[in-house]
Specification:
This protein has eight helices and six strands. With 242 residues, it is of the alpha/beta class. It has a single domain, classed as Glycerol-3-phosphate (1)-acyltransferase, CATH 3.40.1130.
Length: 242
């Protein structure tokens, strides 16, 4: 019964998000959009039964956030504490409702299929960073169960090097009511979006913990070295905090 109630509220909140983006976003300034995104994300987590105990926040207003990737829920966890423009795979556009909302909420989609497409994505990302916008990426390129950090791809880190901005590593983890690591939000393998949503609302006492590590300068280094450094910081923090 509780799960059914949460799913109903989740659906209604998605509809509210669509209405807000369609009717308010076109007339809202940047600051209002950021506030709306943050408030909507916090409400979404609450409706799904996901707590944010610490509510840490980013240590810089702009620049790039680099995080490990466990679930589609990661986007809303980060937006709840540090609203960002996300870099996402192109397939997300096809997701019902969430795809449309992502498109309208400053998501930068990775175009696949050619070097020219990849170059356009990198240019767009660099432009956002130079304008002082906060951008978040998941350099693993896929999701994991959260027990480890998969190898980082360095291509999306290059725009931060070119823009000369700092990069802040973010460690994401989920815990159950007893403080143990939870795999309920893990969006891996053949799990469908519906199955993932159901697992999240069925989990009792689920909490999300985004932990922001000190920023790493992107000036004077190459992207592969930077990717290795960020991976090491996030992996170490993930293990030490568990």
């Amino acid at each position: 019964m509780r799960a059914a109630c949460r799913i109903s509220r989740f659906a209604l909140h998605l509809a509210y998000g669509v209405a807000t983006v369609a009717m308010v976003y076109p007339f809202a300034g940047g600051a209002l959009r950021v506030w709306l995104k943050q408030r909507w994300s916090r409400q979404l987590l609450s409706m799904l039964g996901v707590r944010l105990p610490g509510r840490e926040s980013a240590r810089q207003a702009g620049g790039m956030l680099v995080a490990n990737h466990i679930s589609w829920l990661d986007i809303f966890v980060i937006n709840a504490v540090a609203p960002s423009a996300f870099v996402s795979k192109d397939e997300v556009k096809a997701w019902p409702v969430i795809g449309w909302l992502s498109t309208k909420a400053d998501t930068i989609f990775i175009e696949r299929g050619s070097r020219r497409a990849a170059h356009r994505t990198a240019e767009h990302l660099q432009e956002c960073l130079l304008q002082g916008q906060r951008v978040a990426i998941f350099p693993e390129g896929t999701t994991s169960d959260g027990s480890q950090v998969l190898p980082f791809h360095s291509a999306l880190i290059q725009p931060a090097v070119d823009a000369g901005c700092a990069i802040q590593p973010v460690v994401l983890r989920y815990r159950d009511r007893n403080g143990r690591p939870s795999q309920a939000p893990a969006y891996v393998g053949d799990t469908s979006l519906w199955q993932s949503v159901r697992a999240i609302v069925m989990a009792s006492g689920l909490s999300a913990e985004p932990h922001f590590l000190p920023p790493v300068p992107a000036v004077g280094t190459d992207r592969r070295h930077l990717a290795a450094t960020l991976h090491r910081h996030i992996s170490h923090a993930l293990v030490s905090r568990d």
